[in-house]
Amino acid sequence: MSKVLKADAAAIGEAAVILRRGGLVAFPTETVYGLGADAENETAMRALFAAKGRPADHPVIVHLADAALVDQFAAKVPDAARKLAATFWPGPMTLVLPRSARISDFVTGGLETVGLRVPGHPVAHALLTEFGGPIAAPSANRFGRVSCTRAEHVVAELGARVELILDGGECKVGVESTIIDVSGKQPAILRPGAVTAEQAATVLRESLTAGSKSSPRVSGSLPSHYAPKARVELVEAEEVVSRARKLASQGQKVVVIGPASLQLTDRGIELLIAPRGDESLAHALYSLLRQADELGCDVVVTSAPEEQGIGAAIADRLRRAAGPRD
Ligand code: TXA
Ligand code: MG
């Protein structure tokens, strides 16, 4: 089993030591838990990809203690990036920038750009400061699976594949950072998150294009990602109940994630109550999907919120959870 420690100063010190000798540690950020490794140590990075079960040509996000460090890791920082960084860092946003010589191929999977993020969580910040270098950290889940928003989830996902898990309680945001590509002519949102397209557009005084240049290497942009073991069916809100009943009548074990007002008590259907309000739902989303798996259901039936604010991120993750699988 992996070691789990409450994320106090001593544990953070221990985590930094592990990182320095090339080990892996999981730590909380305000979005989801990250699986961290020394971004400048190739052996550690190989171990990171192996622990996640992630293909070696997928780029990972590099975490920095302070926005002032961005010039060391990006070859060029356009005006738009500076504005976004000044407004949203530390926070739930990743900027894709042209990489500097300090970022190796084993971090970017050979891409000429790098995803950089300055997290706002006090434990992540303390770890980055204590370690004193860039920490590469994908979400602390096995490749393609649901991200972790609690230390227990990381134990379930990675077990002994990670040396130490810093327990910092529940992640506040609950979905991964907004990824904004500022390496091209026009800033583009590659992955929606808590920093919304609307907020970014206000800062930049121009609207951002969405997704588009999603290369298949951007794993979060693969059709099936962020997926529980159970199948996920995404339907219109008014069709949730009828769809769930239909599936249950066919003998499937169904979990519905929906509002308490649905009052579903049918045999074969379990209602997991989705909290009201998109921010609360984002916070609870991955826990709910994990709970559905724990109930051993065949299928999760749910609907997506409107694509406004963080609702866009929830809808994006649900679509990918419902996406075609191999
Ligand atoms: O909230 C988060 O971003 C969390 C926490 C731990 O920071 N991290 C996270 O990392 O979600 P990961 O590796 O699970 O997802 C990172 C996404 C992937 O879809 C990856 O392909 C994309 O970022 N990415 C990384 N570098 C990129 C680059 N240079 N260009 C385009 N996409 C990139
Ligand atoms: Mg991930």
Can you write the helix and strand succession as a string? EHEEHEHHEHEHEHEEEHEEHEEHEH
Low-confidence stretches: none
Structural class: alpha/beta
CATH fold title of the largest domain? DHBP synthase
- CATH first level of the largest domain: which class? Alpha Beta
Which small compounds were modeled alongside the protein? threonylcarbamoyladenylate, magnesium ion
Topology, element by element:
Elements: E1 3-6, H1 9-20, E2 25-27, E3 34-38, H2 42-52, E4 61-63, H3 70-73, H4 79-88, E5 93-98, H5 105-108, E6 113-117, H6 122-131, E7 135-136, H7 151-158, E8 164-167, E9 178-181, E10 188-191, H8 197-204, E11 209-210, E12 231-234, H9 240-249, E13 254-258, E14 269-273, H10 278-294, E15 299-302, H11 311-321
Helix pairs in contact: 1-6
Threonylcarbamoyladenylate binds at residues 29, 31-32, 34, 58-61, 94, 96, 108, 111, 113-115, 117, 137-139, 176-177, 179, 190, 218-220.
